[in-house]
Structures are given as C-alpha cells and as structure tokens.
Design goal:
Largest sheet: 4 strands, parallel
Helix content: 25-40%
Strand order of the largest sheet: 2-1-3-4
Oligomer: single chain
Strand content: 5-15%
Distance between the termini: 22 Å
Radius of gyration: 14 Å
Shape: globular
Structural class: alpha/beta
Order of helices and strands: EHEHHEEH
C-alpha cells in the first residue's frame, strides 16, 4: 500500500524560535510519520539560543538547525501551513490547510520566558498530530 505522508510547514518571520521549536516537536513526536519544514520571511542568522536551551530541557536537540528562507515551493509542497502569529503572508494555494497560531515572540527573551511558549507549542503540535494521524497517539 502506498501512503503519502502528510506534510507541514511552520512559518515565522525569523525562523529562529517558534517555527523551529514547532518543527522539532513535530519531527520528534510524529516519529517520522509527517514531513516537517520550517521557514521565515526574513530568516535570522542563527536559531535563538534560548529556544535551543528550552528544547534541550525536554530532550530535543535543535542546535544544528539553521533558519531557512520561505519559498513558494515549500508552501506548495505542504498540506498544512502554520504561521506563528507574526503577520507573515504566505502564498495561498487551493486545497491547503492554513492555521495561524498566535504565540508570544521568544526573540530577545531568556529561557524562563521561552518555556511557556515551548509548552504551548508542544500542546498545539500534539493536537495537530492527532488531526493528521488519527489513532496514532
């Protein structure tokens, strides 16, 4: 049986915090059952160190991740496009599912401020997995 994996694209302006944490959680929690991408409209030079530290606390290493620029192709290849409450505009393609997750911006924050953002992202990612892979959890 040939089944196509669902694919998700997380987008925020800098692709350095929220979208990186969401992608790391989705990759980790879906155990490879979902294709995961993240990108930003104005990518930062590096991933937010506080986001890396907060994820390390829950056993996920995203220290090797690099912010990526948002491309039309990335949107086109994704079934679900999730923006992170930062006003990003994505190309709109018919048949895609679009969501906007309003989340505080971790930029310039310490790890203490990033933890509740991380935990909210995890909760939303778990809900997303349940919607894309019914019965997987």
């Amino acid at each position: 049986m040939n089944t196509v994996k669902p694919s998700v694209l997380f987008v925020c302006v800098h692709n350095a915090g929220r979208s990186q944490m969401a992608a790391a959680f989705l990759s980790n929690l879906s155990a490879g059952q979902i294709d995961v991408r993240s990108a930003g409209s104005a990518p930062a030079d590096s991933v937010n160190p506080a986001a890396v530290a907060a994820m390390r606390e829950v056993g996920i290493d995203m220290s090797a991740e690099v912010p990526k620029v948002l491309s039309t192709a990335a949107v086109e290849m994704s079934d679900v496009v999730i923006t992170m409450g930062c006003g990003d505009t994505c190309p709109i393609f018919p048949g895609k599912r679009y969501e906007d997750w309003e989340l505080a911006d971790p930029a310039g924050q310490g790890v203490e401020a990033v933890r509740p953002i991380r935990d909210e992202i995890r909760r939303r990612v778990e809900d997303l997995i349940n919607s894309l892979l019914p019965g997987a959890a």
